[in-house]
Inverse folding.
């Protein structure tokens, strides 16, 4: 399988088809929606951070162990990692191509999954098992 080289002439000509239009649209919408959700959750996150400021570990565990706090934070963590993966995808698309791009995207995806799973597991442990 050969890598397609996109030239300046192809990009400048609006009738030239390059890239996957459906995937690009999905990526654009996902990035905007996750960004909007991050902004909406910012107030909630600030509340939690201010509530935990100066508290010791048992108080932190009791606040984060509350289902009304811990479960939305777990959902926020998933949304943030999706947003992070898409943002890094933009950077990787700009600077890398071919098999190196695919390798870096795989590593990016695995890192984001690792962060999401570890964070959600920790929050769910606090919520359900203290």
């Amino acid at each position: 399988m050969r890598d397609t080289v996109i030239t300046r002439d192809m990009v400048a000509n609006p009738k030239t088809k390059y890239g996957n239009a459906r995937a690009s649209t999905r990526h654009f919408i996902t990035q905007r929606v996750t960004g909007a959700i991050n902004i909406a959750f910012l107030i909630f996150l600030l509340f939690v951070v201010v509530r935990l400021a100066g508290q010791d570990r048992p108080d932190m565990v009791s606040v984060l162990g509350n289902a009304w706090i811990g479960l939305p934070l777990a959902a926020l963590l998933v949304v943030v990692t999706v947003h992070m993966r898409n943002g890094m995808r933009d950077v990787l698309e700009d600077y890398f191509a071919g098999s190196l791009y695919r390798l870096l995207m795989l590593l990016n995806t695995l890192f984001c999954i690792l962060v999401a799973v570890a964070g959600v597991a920790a929050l769910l442990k606090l919520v359900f098992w203290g």
User: Anything to note?
Assistant: DSSP finds five helices and no strands in the chain. Residues 8-129 form a domain with the 3 helical TM bundles of succinate and fumarate reductases fold (CATH 1.20.1300.10). The radius of gyration is 20 Å.
